[in-house]
Amino acid sequence: MSKISNEWHGIPRKEIPWYSTVDKEKCIGCGLCFVTCGRNVYVMKGKKAEVANPYNCLVGCTTCATICPVNAISFPDKELIQKIEREHAILRYVQEEKKKKGAKIELEKVRAEAEKIVSSSPHMAEFTITGHILEKEIPKKLLNIISQCKCDIVNFKLETPSLKVCFDEQAPSAARFTLVSQDYADITNCMEKIDKLLEENNIVVVEHKKIS
Predict the structure, then answer these.
(1) CA angle 115, 176, 131 (to 5 degrees)
(2) pLDDT tens digits, the chain, 212 residues: what are they?
(3) CATH, range 7-90
(4) What is the rounded CA–CA span in Å between residue 133 and residue 141?
(5) Residue 73 near residue 22, CB atoms below 8 Å
(6) Domain ranges across the chain
(7) Phi, psi at residue 48, to the nearest 5°?
(8) Closest CA to 127 of 116, 137, 138
(9) Residue 9's closest CA among 103, 91, 104, 99?
(10) Alpha carbons 208 and 92: distance in angstroms, whole number
């Protein structure tokens, strides 16, 4: 449950006598009001509903009275609220609240759109490569590329039969690594540079895939 404000459009909540009353003679203890109200207005005592936190009640809300199957719940007349609105010039206050809420909604829309763009842009890629990776100093060359981009290479795993076989007999090695953007930007340009580097050094790209 969200925090309940102690004001209603700038008016202290306890200055507004809007809350429910339970007729215990009519109440059958069904618990609908207790369960339905999300503001903890009610408690159940002796199999009857009781108003425990009257000022938690949302001004103008009559849901509990509407759903009560025996009409055991009542509220003040709505004219009480309209009178308070006039006396406190609520509509002027609400205009400012309306502007703030509108600005907040627009900000949330912009943020959601930005997150959508980020999520749809590939900012990770997994590579599996094979070839003379150590002899061609591929790790060092990869480091040179990512130092020019806002990217990093993580989980770099190199597999080679042995260093002697790798260098003396020119046996190929295999490597796996993940290219990641450090600011969730599109990594397509960096991927293209890596692909070009691998091609120039006769390194076979077994697989590479973008991950959004």
Answers:
(1) 135
(2) 557 888 888 889 999 999 999 999 999 999 999 999 999 999 999 899 999 999 999 999 999 999 999 999 999 998 888 888 888 888 777 788 888 888 888 888 877 776 665 455 568 889 999 999 999 999 999 999 999 888 899 989 999 888 887 778 788 999 999 998 877 778 888 999 999 999 999 999 998 887 76
(3) 3.30.70.20
(4) 10
(5) yes
(6) 7-90, 124-211
(7) -130, 150
(8) 138
(9) 91
(10) 60
Phi first, then psi: what are they for 88, rounded to 5°?
Answer: -100, 10
Determine contact, residues 204/131, Cβ cutoff 8 Å.
yes
**Alpha helices per DSSP H over 31-184:** 32-36, 63-67, 79-87, 90-120, 138-146, 163-168
Residue 47 DSSP code: T
Whole-number Å distance between alpha carbons of 82 and 180: 59
CATH code at 124-211: 3.30.70.2690
Q: Whole-angstrom Cα distance, residue 175 to residue 199?
A: 15
Query: Could you identify the residue written with the tokens 């809420």?
Result: 101
State which H helix or E strand residue 34 sits in: helix 32-36
Q: Which residues does 40 contact at the CB level (< 8 Å), separation at least 6?
A: 1, 52, 53, 56
